[in-house]
Structures are given as C-alpha cells and as structure tokens.
C-alpha cells in the first residue's frame, strides 16, 4: 500500500501541467527518484503530494486521502523539502530545526529530548558545527543540508525532496544519497527529484520519468534507462553503459 497516486491532474495559470498521473504504490523501504526535463512538473507533483497545491485525483497513504488529514497528522506523516530554500529568518540552525519539530502542534517530546534529537540530526549530516549559525548566514549547500534535516525533523514516514543534492559538493552528494537510501531501508517512503540519472541509477530502487504531463517510464533504473527513452524525453543522443565497477552511467553525446 503506502503512497498511491490516482489520476492526479493539475492546472497552473490555465495550463494543464499534470495530466492524470497514476503510479503503482510507492512502498515503504523504496527510494524513488522522480526525473524529467525542466518544467515538466516534478516540483508541481511533489507539492501536490505534500498538499501545497490543489489538484484533481487522489493522493492516498495506506488508503487514506492526504487531503482529508489534519495538518498535525500530515506533518507527522510527510516531510517536504522544497527546491528553493532561501531564508531571511533570524533563527539559528538549531532553532529552525526545533520550529520544524513543533510545526502543526508538535511532537510529545520534552524540549531537552528535542534539542538532543536536533543535534543528532545535524551530526548525521556532518553539520553539527552549524547549530548556532544564523539560517540567513549559510552557504547554498549548507542551507540545503539544513533543509533536509528540517524535512526529517519529525521522522516522517513519507519523505518528499525536491533536488536535495543540487547545491552539494561530490562528497556531500554521496553522503546525502547514501543517507536517503538508508532512510528508505528503515521502512520509509522516500521520493526525491534528481536530474542526474547516473546518480539515480546508482541509488534509486525505482525511477519515475515524467514527460508531457504524464509518466513516460516507471521501474528499476537499469530496466527503464535506455537511449530510446532519453532520446524521446530529453531529445538527446545518449549512451547507457556500465563502468568498470559495473555501475550504470548515462553519457550524453549531443542533441538527438
Ligand atoms: N506558480 C506558477 N504559476 C504558473 N505556472 C507555473 C507556476 N509554477 C510553475 N509553473 C509552470 O508549471 C510547469 C511545471 O513546473 P515545475 O516547477 O513543476 O517543473 P519541474 O519539472 O520541477 O522543473 P525544473 O526541472 O526546472 O525544476 C512549468 O511549465 C512552469 O513554468
């Protein structure tokens, strides 16, 4: 069961962005990457799942519509990290995490336990030293890592992340993607938008590719990543090959 999308459609400014997105259930334990060309609707779909945009169709978790859940229950269930994480807040990184923990009614933990958990989350992502830094004084990559910690603040069952590695260096990309795969293994549903299909092939159990408002391909990356799909969806000539270690990679040779 877990997360189900049934005929999710959405218009923005009079234009249909999503045209009836349905997908097999996203199971607990599964790390899914959502990919597709710029402007195809990946962020829009994540925002609809997170209930930040009105849509037609159904978004269900274990059979229950997310649209009918109270804000507190939804905050417990789903953690969402948006693409644009600018912050003009006066809060410190630690305070920002505590705010995320206490959103929509908060958890039942005492403040001491919350602070310990917040510090552990920062340590998990290698940014413990930033706890006292102002949110407005972070680099792009630091802000992104803090945003991820905020999305995880309530230990959500469903984690929705919009380009979580876009601002990260190579070491942090590896660390975060390995962490997301490990979080999924702990019985969570993790869905992340990524543009890097080689990274998707390396880490994701499932790849969903959007094209023209619909699902163009959905399955294990090694099954669905083909030169034909990349030509159709991205209009590129590309090779899908294995490196010396047996890892799949995508190399683009030019426009199709
Ligand atoms: N607030 C808005 N009002 C009107 N149209 C919008 C709005 N936000 C996004 N769009 C349009 O909706 C479409 C989907 O945008 P979305 O941000 O979901 O794409 P995306 O797949 O996440 O793109 P990218 O890879 O560039 O981040 C685009 O054509 C975009 O121009």
Describe the structure.
This is Iron complex transport system ATP-binding protein. GO terms for molecular function: ATP binding; ATP hydrolysis activity. Keywords: ATP-binding, Nucleotide-binding. The protein has 256 residues and is an alpha/beta fold. It has two domains: 2-225, Rossmann fold; 226-255, no CATH class. 33% of the residues lie in helices and 30% in strands. It contains nine helices and twelve strands. Strand 11 (236-242) and strand 12 form a beta hairpin. The longest helix is centred in the C-terminal third of the chain and has 16 residues, at 170-185. It is globular, with a radius of gyration of 18 Å. Bound molecules: adenosine-5'-triphosphate. Adenosine-5'-triphosphate (ATP) binds next to helix 1.
Quick tags:
256 residues, alpha/beta, 6-stranded mixed β-sheet, 4-stranded antiparallel β-sheet, 30% strand, binds adenosine-5'-triphosphate, nucleotide-binding, Iron complex transport system ATP-binding protein
Largest sheet composition: 6 strands, mixed
The separation of the N and C termini measures 39 Å
Q: How many extended strands?
A: 12
In DSSP terms, counting alpha (H) and pi (I) runs of 4 or more, how many helices? 9
User: What would you call the structural class?
Assistant: alpha/beta
Residue stretches low in confidence (pLDDT < 50, at least 5 long) are none
- List the ligand species: adenosine-5'-triphosphate
- Overall average pLDDT: 94
CATH topology of the largest domain: Rossmann fold
Judging by the overall fold, what is the CATH architecture of the largest domain? Answer: 3-Layer(aba) Sandwich
Share in β-strands: 25-35%
CATH-assigned homologous superfamily of the largest domain: P-loop containing nucleotide triphosphate hydrolases
Rg estimate, integer Å: 18 Å
In helices, the fraction of residues equals 25-40%
- State the order of secondary-structure elements, H for helix, E for strand: EEEHEEHEHHHEHEHEEHHEE
Tell me the strand order in the biggest sheet.
6-7-8-3-9-10
Pfam families: ABC_tran
Domain ABC transporter: 3-237
Organism: Poseidonocella sedimentorum
GO molecular function: ATP binding; ATP hydrolysis activity
């Amino acid at each position: 069961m877990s997360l189900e999308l049934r005929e999710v459609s959405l218009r923005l400014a009079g234009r249909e962005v999503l045209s009836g997105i349905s997908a097999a259930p996203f199971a607990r334990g599964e790390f899914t990457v959502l990919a597709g060309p710029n402007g195809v609707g990946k962020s829009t779909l994540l925002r609809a799942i997170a209930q930040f945009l009105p849509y037609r169709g159904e978004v269900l978790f274990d059979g229950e519509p997310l649209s009918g859940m109270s804000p507190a229950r939804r905050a417990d269930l789903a953690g969402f990290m948006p693409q644009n994480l600018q912050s003009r807040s006066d809060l410190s990184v630690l305070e920002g995490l505590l705010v995320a923990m206490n959103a929509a009614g908060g958890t039942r933990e005492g403040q001491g336990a919350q602070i310990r958990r917040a510090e552990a989350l920062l340590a998990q992502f290698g940014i413990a030293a930033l706890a006292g830094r102002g949110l407005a004084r972070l680099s792009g990559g630091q802000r992104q890592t803090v945003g991820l910690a905020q999305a995880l603040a309530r230990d959500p069952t469903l984690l929705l992340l919009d380009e979580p590695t876009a601002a990260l260096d190579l070491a942090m990309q590896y660390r975060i993607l390995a962490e997301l795969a490990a979080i999924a293994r702990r019985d969570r549903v993790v869905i992340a938008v990524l543009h890097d299909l080689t990274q998707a092939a390396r880490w994701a159990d499932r790849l969903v590719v959007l094209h023209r408002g619909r699902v163009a391909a959905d399955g294990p990356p090694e099954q669905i990543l083909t030169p034909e799909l990349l030509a159709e969806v991205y209009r590129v000539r590309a090779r899908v090959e294995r490196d010396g270690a047996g890892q799949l990679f995508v190399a683009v040779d030019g426009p199709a």
